[in-house]
Amino acid sequence: QEKSCRLSAALLGEDSEISQEQLYELLKYAALGKGHNAAQPSWCRIYHQSHLAGVVVVVLHEMSQLHFYRFYLQFKHLRKVFQHRFTLTPSTNFPGSLYGAGTHLKPQNTAQGLTSTSSECITKSSDLQCDPIIQRYGEKKQGLTSYTLTLEEQKKNDYPIKGSPGCKGYISTECDQQRTDSSPLFGLDCEMCLTAKGNEVTRVSLVDAQGQCLLNELVKPESSVMNYRTRFSGITKKMLLPVKTRLSDIQTRLKKLLPHDAVLVGHSLNSDLQALEMIHPSVIDTSLLFARSEGRRFKLKFLAKAVLGKEIQCEQKLGHDPTEDARAALELAQFFIEQGPAKVAELNLEMLLTAEKLAEVSQNKAALQPQGCGFQEQLNEPPHLSKPCFLDCLQVTGQKPLLLGRQGQDSSGQCQSNLSTSNKQILQRALEDVPLSTFSIIQFSLGPEYIASHLHAGLFEKVRSKLTDMLTIYAGPFEENFCMKSVKKEFGRCGPIQSLTVVTETFQPYVCIQYEVLEAAQLAVESLNGAEVAGSCIKVQRPVTAAMLDCNVLIKELELDVENEGVIYVAGLKKSLTETDLQEEFSQLRDLETLFLPKDLQSGKHRNCCFLKFQKSQSAVDALETINGWTMKGSELRSRNALASGHLWKWIWQMNHSSGKQGEHIFFEKMEQLSDSEQDLRKKVKKLDHHIKKLYRSLQNNTLCVVLFPGVN
After folding, report:
1. Where are the beta strands (DSSP E) in 62-212?
2. Domain containing 617 — which CATH number?
3. What is the phi/psi pair of residue 43, to 5°?
4. In what order do the strands lie in the sheet with 497-503?
5. Which residues of 351-372 are buried (b: 16+ CB within 10 A; e: fewer)?
6. CA atoms within 13 A of residue 584's CA, in its CB half-sphere
7. CB 139 within 8 A of CB 341
8. 497 shares a domain with 595
9. 3-state DSSP call for residue 403?
10. pLDDT of residue 96
11. How far apart are CA 131 and CA 341, in angstroms?
12. What distance separates the 2 farthest-apart alpha carbons in the chain?
């Protein structure tokens, strides 16, 4: 069975908060691996990193943890799929340091220490010995036969080989004559679309040694087309409608056009021959000819500009021109043969690429940052002290990250001229481009009208108010002279109480109890409603307000949250018990993985409850049956499924202990403005969740996907 990548991380309690640096550790190791001296993250572990298909980071612009829980029910897909959830500790400008918005970089400083050893070596123009081109071909000029791929090299690079299992039914060009240094060169390039069969040819171009076009033909695929890849191929459905030419016709024409000693030239020519289902014995692959270290390759667009001084694959054109690409590959091979390896190495292509990327980044990186919110302004430091952003680190190691957003960049790094791109358009681009990139950042936004600071403040109050109501229960009625101590003791068995007060507005006494954890309030409602407490048969309920009408739905969804799978809450513990004591007491429970004992974040004292995480969900169900009614050190335990086991527990505590008091004269104005837009906002969030679902489902297996709520600060 093929090895699959896996992420292992702690999920409970204090471990559920991570820093920006820790997130970078994860992204860097996932993107680069050991090949670029990236280390396993200190706080989690990625298994089989070399099998990772790619990394996708979805940034929800200026949305925070606050938005996630305010619109928890609307984020249906997000909360059901992403099982690892962490709170990011605040940083000065998280998105800025991720993709460098607004920073100014000096190329010589940025490149230092980020390129590989081999790249550093070739920066010394006086010493070319460690250049990969020289290491592979030597310094002397040689004939073209020295640069054709050997049979072993063809096998290694997935070229169709006669007699190999995957090439059954492939057609040979029958160019079987002995090659010499005077054999004719032909440039070949194809454009493909994605069909039910895989990659199928839609256009083929062949040019001769003088650059004359011998063939430029549209081809109708055999299978139904799933994606025309118009942005890259230039092919549309309309273009292929009248086409009668099939793959077999192209194979026949190529066999007629190529002489028996022909040498085919192309850039990653293996994919063209595979799509053509043809076998040709003698090829020059310019992606391998212009050798780089560690198996990396230069793009054809870059080589054409750096070596030939030609601009190809221009953004203004719809798709690539296969004739242009075939001619560029041919001229690159001719340049290499005529000038020799030493002259090519002296071009210092690695340095040129680094300089080009850094210039590109510094010109365009401000595009994702709102106007007036530059990273440089916020840090208030001179440009020469600015650190390289995360994407810079990737780019100087030869990767070409994809960056898409409302004010984003496309995969070529060029700033989009249309700044009003919708989330739907961004999604469409992402569905096309993400499969072609190993590292992608996709930025969605609710729009400027929903992220104003006054709306954010109103949102905070709404969330804090609802959480307070969910943590609060009313119990009663009691007798006139009831024993408050008995009530506190009974309700305290459900979990830590923050406050307990007597309600005086009612005919008979009631008590209002506010708990510190959601599970405690829910346990009180479930176990004490209708029970006899302090000599009275009481009713236990939460406050009845408009905001609480969906409370039961919310509780159910929290319980089913993937983050709470296999996690239970246990209350009624004696405070004298230590974590070691509890580990010992619960050791008999099958498949127990983690125990978390919450602490008061101010005093540091642990509470009278804990969370238990089990390796299997069924083991958690069995543990619930065992623990309920279990007496530990003279105290009866109560238990239920967890509702807020991870980062949410700590966040609720912080929300609950924040003053949250706003000036009355501005607070109601904010709330009124928020109410006007919140219904529309719910629809927007639901649609956003659907976009993430669609993007997520399109990802290849073994893709690491991270969704960030970076907040407004």
Report:
1. 87-88, 171-172, 185-195, 198-207
2. 3.30.70.330
3. -110, -10
4. 497-503, 510-515, 472-476, 539-541
5. bebbebbbebbbebbbbbbeee
6. 7
7. yes
8. no
9. strand
10. 65
11. 10
12. 110
Look at residue 401 in the predicted model and tell me its pLDDT: 83
Both tokens of residue 283?
Answer: 């090829």
pLDDT at 459: 78
Instruction: Report the chain's C-alpha Rg in angstroms.
Output: 32
Cβ-count burial 79-89 (b if 16+ within 10 Å, e if not): beebeebbbbe
Are 143 and 194 members of one domain?
A: yes
Instruction: Looking at the structure, tell me whether residues 535 and 591 fall in a common domain.
Output: no
Range of the domain at 136: 132-350
SS3 content of the chain, % helix, strand, coil (to 5): 45, 20, 40
**Within its chain, how far is the Cα of 68 from the centroid?**
17
Domain assignment present for residue 119? The answer is no
CA 85, 8, 16: angle at the middle one, nearest 5? 35
Q: How many CB atoms lie within 10 A of CB 383?
A: 11
pTM over 0.70: no
Both 610 and 637 in one domain: the answer is: yes
Distances (CA, A) of 252 to 166, 206, 248: 21, 14, 6
pLDDT per residue as tens digits for the range 638-667: 999 999 866 777 777 777 666 544 443 433
How high is the pLDDT of residue 440? 92
Residues of the chain predicted below pLDDT 50: 1-2, 101-126, 366, 368, 370-387, 408-420, 660-674
Predicted confidence at residue 110, as pLDDT, reads 27
- Token pair 């967890």: residue: 642
Nearest to 288, CA basis, from 190, 181, 121, 157: 157
Residues 516 and 582 in one domain: no
In degrees and rounded to multiples of 5, residue 442 shows phi and psi of -115, 120
Chain centroid to Cα 276, Å, comes to 34
Partnered with residue 610 across adjacent β-strands are 570
Q: At what angle do helices 269-276 and 247-257 cross, to 10 degrees?
A: 120
Crossing angle of helices 664-698 and 423-433, in 10° steps, is: 30
- Look at residues 609, 642, 675 and tell me which one is the last residue of a structural domain: 642
Q: Residue 62 — left, alpha, or beta (φ > 0 → left; ψ -120 to 50 → alpha)?
A: left
Whether residue 244 is found in the same domain as residue 322: yes
The answer to whether the CB of 449 falls within 8 A of the CB of 677 is: yes
pLDDT for 171 equals: 95
The residues near 233 (Cβ < 8 Å, ≥ 6 apart) are 191, 192, 193, 202, 203, 319, 320
In sequence order, which ranges of 33-105 are alpha helices (DSSP H)? 65-70, 76-81, 94-99
Q: How far apart are CA 368 and CA 103, in angstroms?
A: 12
**On the CB side of 61, how many CA atoms lie within 13 Å of its CA?**
24
Reduced to 3 states, what is the DSSP secondary structure of residue 285?
strand
The number of CA neighbours under 13 Å toward the Cβ of 230 is 9
Q: Is residue 430 part of a domain?
A: no
